[in-house]
Write a structure and sequence with these properties.
The protein is α+β, with helices and mostly antiparallel strands. The chain has a single domain, classed as Phosphatase 2c, domain 1 (4-Layer Sandwich). It has 7 helices and 13 strands. Strands 2, 3, 4, 5, 6, 9, 10 and 13 form an 8-stranded antiparallel sheet that branches. Strands 1-12-11-7-8 form a 5-stranded antiparallel sheet. It is globular, with a radius of gyration of 18 Å. The N terminus and C terminus are likely disordered.
Length: 302
Amino acid sequence: MDLSRMGAVLTPHWGAASDIGPVRSHNEDRWLAAPPLYAVADGMGGHADGELAARTALDVLCARLAAGPQEGQGQGFLDLDAAIAAAALAVSDLAGRDPAGASSPWDAPTPGAPGTTLTGALTTSLDGTPHWLVFNIGDSRTYLCAGGALRRLTRDHSAREEARHHPLAGDLAADAPAPNIVTRALGAGTAGLPEPDYFTCLVARGDRLLICSDGVHGAVADSDLAVVLTTREDPQQAANAVVDLALAGGTRDNATAVVVDVAELSPAWPEETPIGADVREVRRVRPAPTVTARRAPARGED
């Protein structure tokens, strides 16, 4: 689907690769590259259910954003947040469950129920300047590679990541949870709508995004990802190499990678502006808070 009419402010080149891996009998990962929207979804809940959940999430996300912005000329936080909420409801409906009807808005995902992670980026214009609007639910990841540096833009929603940031993390290290316990997902029997993380940073010519499932980053160190992303010029070759690296690294999951390059950009940054991923400002943002019958308030909200 061509979403260029939504206000894309750059000329992208992209490549994508996905592999079932050496253990699984089905590939439950799905990816989307429909400029200016790029995403990866890692399904869960069993062969057919996981595959359907991931596909449903991306289909609904793409369709809702393709319908056009709520206001203004480009897609923004409200449009993306509404599209992700619609995707979450559609995935929950696969199990015949209304997420608004659960007893607690913070229930953990339920093993066996159809669900999926979701991460990626939407290119948009903020105050007339091109930005990456990065989103994440679950433990798939989005990275920025620029100026020879690699930076993870998202934070995993996993039991292990939460334990790592616990005040007593050092004392709990020996009891760290398994890495594949996801604490936030679309569907998966969770109550309420999931709370996505959103981040923004300016776009620069030469930027390269990597969007991948945990079958990649769980088997490949960030330093090795950086080598591949800074030495493969073609994005399709880079995506292929990332997945090959995951397979060589012994991944036991499906492995999926989407690589997006910024070939041209208008308007360009001033020459004196630092563009390296390690020095670029990344802001965590939230859409205007809304409370509806299907969106439970976050902890601490009135």
